[in-house]
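Pilot study result, target chain (246 residues):
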Amino acid sequence: MPLEMGRKMQTSLQTKLLRALAILAGLLVVKVAASIVLVYRDYLPPNFESAFLNGRQSYFFGAYHWAFYTHIACGPVTLLLGLVLISDRFRQRFPHWHRSLGKVQIALVLLLLAPSGLWMAPYAETGAVAATGFSALAVATWTCALLGWRTAVRKRFAEHRRWMWRCFLLLCSAVVLRLIGGLDTMTGVGGASSYPLAAWASWLVPLAIFELGGAIRRRYSRPSVQNATYLPPAPASIALAGGKSA
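Predicted structure:
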């Protein structure tokens, strides 16, 4: 009995810890989305002395500025929508809203956010490594959104949730990138030279953690099923099957 109570307390503590971490992560996503919106004042009209637009005046007025404004308009929206859509509680209580908002999310990512990110990627500040990283991020985000939509249409909802979790983590690369930038500023380590690495790490690391966590859960869930105690059929069921009971 004490052992069972101890296990229940441990499970309850783990649940509370995970919930607290989820709330903190959600608040961080909201903060980053708000910070993106707050710097719109540097972009409307474009201020080429601001951090992001500095040095971009030579090519800004052309196709780039359409991609740029599309990207910064869709980015905060898709982050906040993703935060709502990954909530199991929201999905269970408001399935109609989940489907409707999900369609909006998929359309924004497939038609606007990922294509505009892919267009902007070659103009990354620190050269080819960062440009390739952001291009790969755009393609990966588009692919996850597409596969998430296809699995939902085919009613393969477990796969759908996994693909949309991947898509959300890729969208959160904007959050991770800002965290890395903040750490660089605080510590003075890396600076501009760390940006190419951050362009890859901001989405590969969260995605790798997600895939590793899924693999571990699947690994440890199998033995419990395989080692389940076999219960022989009841005599009544044997009789119905045409056999003889002892």
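One observation from the pilot: The chain has ten helices and no strands. A full batch analysis is planned for the follow-on phase.
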